[in-house]
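Morning!

This is the sequence you dropped in the shared folder:
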Amino acid sequence: MERPIFKNIGTAAEDLDPSSLVVDIGALEANIATMHSYFEALDVKLRPHVDSHLCPAIAHMQLGASGTVAGIGTTTLGQAETFVQAGFTDVFVTNVVVSAQKIARLCALSRQAKMTITVDNQTNVRDLSASAVQKGVTLNVAIDVDTSLHRFGVGPGGPAVELAKTIVNAESLEFAGLTTYEGKMFEKDTEAIATESRKAIQQVLDTRQDIEKLGIDVEMVSVGGTCNYEIAAGMSGVTEVPAGTYALMDGRYRSHCPQFQPAAHILGIVVSTPEDGIAIMDAGGKTIGADIGQPTVENIPGVTVRSLSAEHGNLVLSEEGVSVGDKVWVLPWDVGLAFNLHDYAQVVRDGRLESVWDLPARGRYR
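The structure's back. Tokens below.
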């Protein structure tokens, strides 16, 4: 755990200690207002997915806004446990839980909150049912439909229908509905995103019809995300859209979602200028996160990140020079990876420190 180094409330953002994770609460509030107002008048609602920030304070802001299902989504059971402890009572874990120990944890958690989990095979359904019966609880189970990613999930149509029949007939399980994750749509252009989104979501909607022909209600169809929420929300039969990155935004999604402002940055500092055209900052992969894309320097024109080592970032200067001691504001490529590396975020409003938020779900992989 990082050692907290707190400045006085009111400290200028530029005077915070690098390398700090800094959230602009004004931009965060604007992003929430933009996204949630879109869903306010629709039948389909938003389910904030908290994996992108791991922060109960932000999740409370999201559920306090309009247009939600009054519940959140997490990626891991450990994250769900953290958010239930923080007072959240409706949690959809968009993952499979198969080990006996984890299933026992899920059952225990279901005594405190409405828990929904995904499945993609008959064995898992039987194991969930047996544990729920033994513990005297009821679990809500959704089918993950594999529409394009081939990560996990059951095939649309017949395989999903057979799995739904098994769930309906299992003791202590409630069939919640259908979900899918379409994959990394932000890597494609706008037209391709629309085409592939509709193709994937339609497979889920067709599967819903197949299941309902058997007299089985499909109450939830949870599809889409930040990059395609308007497409998902516009398709008849969709009930909720799980999205998370919209709240803070990052380098992956920014070009596809200009309506949202980058609200989270890493504040670094130049520690060396070893040669012309090159500078080294103190923020590296352990601070910003490392993925398939590079972070973006926001405050110095013509400066790009060439590479990240564990503790440092290698900067290339094309227009203007920098000096040792200059501050560098960096937009992470993947904001979820960045937040997972920090125990707290420094929160600024109008350029001055307003609060410090804990990130208790960071590192909760299991």
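Headline: The domain at 13-22+258-358 is CATH 2.40.37.20 (Lyase, Ornithine Decarboxylase; Chain A, domain 1).

More detail when I'm at my desk.
O.
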